[in-house]
Amino acid sequence: MLPQRFDQAKPFLTLGIALLAWLLVPTAIKRMARTSFFELQAPLKITASYVRDLQDFWALKTRSKNELIEAGRDLARLNAAYESRLQQDAALRKELERLERILKLPTPAGYRAEPARVVLRDFSSWWQRLIIRKGRNYGIVVGAPVIYAGGVVGRVREVHAYTSVVELVSSPGVRIAATIEGDTRPISYQGGVNPTFGPAFGTVEYVPLNIFATSASPLRLVTSGLGGVFPPNLTVGHLTKVEPSSDGLFKSGEVRLDPALSALNEVTVLVPQPVLPVR
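and the corresponding structure tokens:
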């Protein structure tokens, strides 16, 4: 009877010994093993990403000529609008450089925009992170901000040889110094505890008492530029709910994030550039 019970408990005993051995392994070895395992998986993930891009290409080949002509017209309109904005941006940059020379101000650190394709989302933490198809081979660094057409995506958390892990703005690990559009007072934003496949949201603290927002009349939350991570005036989300904090000095609230975050195919990494010396 005793040997039979021992045989039944043997798998659990083996598992317990394995877990105990893993807990006793030094942290440096654990980190190295995790990184090595990630690097071994990376080629498979990247290959699958390229296959999906090829499938999308052949799917587009089946479109009719009328659809392609209409899409070409829309693209031409967008290109014209972007060309006008680029000219305005160039004029503003020249004016800014002129004022910096007159006042002898140091040129602030800039960013190099590095577009990157999304390899996959981590389904175990849907609203927490995604993996992009560029890493150290393109100069990506840990902590670099990641954006898209709708605003903030998140920031780079891990960098590997050919891939990088991006922690999404919806993750509780992301904090951003933000402001209400049109207001200069700083507000603390943090990602929320989001359900898998549910709508994403974040939370804010230190909201001034004279700020009011509802789901019917939301307020746009943008980056303040404080902290030196994210450039100013990037959309974070929309403030849809505020209520007094326990201390009565400020308000706290909830921020609705863009649903497009759940279907991103391409993002842009802003790689920080060194500060230029005073001219």
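(Above: one complete record from the training split.) The two ends are 87 Å apart (CA to CA).
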